[in-house]
């Protein structure tokens, strides 16, 4: 999902207010400070003061986001457009969905499914459709993003 050819979706830890435009929520980072190995990746996102760690498996990945102490720490899930689907299940600290985004060469019924499970309860969840936040909407099948908020005390998730 990281090379934007098919089945891609975005998981972005941010601080402050949630940003729905992928270019605006991007962050500066230094290749000198990152660790990149086939089995482990670590980078510091300077604009959000968040350290991201990733350990891939054959069909999944484990993420750890280390946030600063804040009442406004978010993980923004963006399944992009083209018929994607997302559903938030707050009682299970879970976001599920799929994306159909692709560059061609896939069957008409192509879907890349995802399940995100968090080890901390959501403080705030909403869905933004076409950049407009829709409070209490936990399911969407349009051009949408999902900001999930956590209060953090310099802890990892």
What is the count of β-strands?
Answer: 13
Strand line-up in the sheet with most strands? 1-6-13-10-11
CATH topology: Beta-galactosidase, Chain A, domain 5
Strand-and-helix sequence, N→C?
EEEEEEEEEEEEE
Radius of gyration: 15 Å
Helix count, per DSSP?
A: 0
Assign an overall shape: globular
Q: What is the highest CATH level, the class?
A: Mainly Beta
In terms of DSSP E residues, the strand content is over 45%
**Second rung of CATH, namely the architecture:** Distorted Sandwich
Low-confidence stretches: none
Number of domains: 1
Helix content: under 10%
Mean pLDDT comes to 82
How would a textbook summarize the main sheet? 5 strands, antiparallel
List keywords for this structure.
Beta-galactosidase, Chain A, domain 5; 0% helix; single chain; mainly beta; 48% strand; four-stranded antiparallel sheet; 157 residues; five-stranded antiparallel sheet
